[in-house]
Amino acid sequence: MSTWREDLGTSNEAISLMQSIFANVSDAILVIDHEGRIVRANAALEQMTGWTEDELIREKHICELCLGMATCMEETSCTDCFFKRVQMPSFEMKLRTKDGRDYPVAASSARLPEESGGKLVMILRDMSAQQRAEKERYQHKLTHFAIQAQEEERKRIARELHDGIGQALYSILVGLNVVRQGNPGEAVMQHVTELVNMTSRAMEEVKRMALELRPSALDDLGLLPALRSLMKRVEKTFHIQVELHVQGEKRRYSAPMETALYRIVQEAMTNTAKYAQASQLGIMFENREKEVVVTIVDDGIGFEVEKTLNFGKGLGVFGMKERAQLLGGTVDIRSAPQEGTTVIVRIPLPEEGILDDDSRLDR
């Protein structure tokens, strides 16, 4: 008698434990009868689908919730449905929620023995956060390849402009000067002089385009000399006074890091020149122990940051942020109408060193 009571107590305790697990586990659990009707469901399934227990139990068929299963062998479909199987240890499926959304879940199913009613038990785990993370990782990788391809194409076109079109224009200019030295008639001399001037302007334009696409100083001399060259062009073109202050040791960084910092500063300076109506622009370059911090400040008219980004007018800003994020960094933009704009760029330095072998090869 004593043993029977102990077994009964243990059995009741086990049942209580199972009920507690069923009610409180974060994974959704549902039990389906032979006809496919949901006969049991826990709170996690209610939260996942939006339907209450009363709306699910005996009211919903599994096919009303399931939008198809997927395995490593095939995409989402209803072929060879898990409901026809005795057991499916792992597959993916999408639930249809009460408000019509598709909800991705990882699932497993097992059919109980006939003496237990032969019902099908399913366990569903929320995959939405994981899929979002995977999507972000994929987007991150895609952005990296896109920027890398863009820079390689810029470098190629800049080289062709300089070595191809630039050299051809220079040859034309030399030929025209030879003609001019031959003392042609006044009419011919005037025409040749016009052609010389046109060719000179074309050479300057080609040089400018090549510099905008990919300054050779960035690859040959490094980030700071390239920035100083950029500053001179901005001062000359837009009549803005630009100052650069450098704190810390001057050194070379990896090619991706130098390119990203150059492009971010270039975009910030271009935005200032085009929209800020600024007269002065300051750049503070800080080489710290574990990061590089670049601060760009102008005295322009400023703008409402959130409003500009929300209305899709800040595509350049998104590009700046993307480049920084690819290196684990950030871009913080602070501005307000009539208060100027401050852009703070933070890029962490790699622990293994400033300039690695791969970076040297890229140069």
In terms of topology, how is this protein built?
Elements (H helix, E strand, L loop, with lengths): L1 H23 L3 E5 L5 E4 L1 H7 L3 H4 L5 H4 E5 L16 E10 L5 E10 L8 E7 L1 H54 L4 H28 L2 H5 L2 H16 L2 E7 L7 H22 L3 E8 L3 E8 L6 H6 L4 H12 L3 E6 L5 E8 L8 H6 L1
Parallel strand pairs: 7-8
Antiparallel strand pairs: 1-2, 1-6, 3-4, 4-5, 5-6, 8-9, 9-11, 10-11
Helix pairs in contact: 5-6, 8-9, 9-11
Description:
The chain is an alpha+beta fold. It folds into three domains: 125 residues, PAS domain (Beta-Lactamase), CATH 3.30.450.20; 86 residues; 143 residues, 2-Layer Sandwich (Heat Shock Protein 90). Helices cover 52% and strands 21% of the residues. The strands form two sheets. It has a six-stranded antiparallel beta sheet. A five-stranded mixed beta sheet has the order 7-8-9-11-10, with helices on one face. α5 runs antiparallel to α6 and α8 runs parallel beside α9. The longest helix has 54 residues. The protein starts with a helix and ends with a helix.
Put the structure in a nutshell.
With 363 residues, this protein is of the alpha+beta class. The protein is 52% helix and 21% strand.
Mean pLDDT: 82
Q: Tell the overall outline.
A: elongated
Low-confidence stretches: 1-5, 353-363
Individual helix count = 12
Number of domains: 3
CATH architecture of the largest domain: 2-Layer Sandwich
Class by helix and strand content? Answer: alpha+beta
- Cα(first) to Cα(last) distance is 87 Å
Radius of gyration: 34 Å
Main CATH class of the largest domain: Alpha Beta
Number of E-type strands: 11
Please identify which CATH superfamily of the largest domain we are dealing with.
Histidine kinase-like ATPase, C-terminal domain
- Order of secondary-structure elements: HEEHHHEEEEHHHHEHEEHHEEH
| Order of the strands making up the biggest sheet | 2-1-6-5-4-3
Subcellular location: Cytoplasm
GO cellular component, one term: cytoplasm
Catalytic activity: ATP + protein L-histidine = ADP + protein N-phospho-L-histidine
Keywords: 4Fe-4S, ATP-binding, Cytoplasm, Iron, Iron-sulfur, Kinase, Metal-binding, Nucleotide-binding, Phosphoprotein, Transferase, Two-component regulatory system
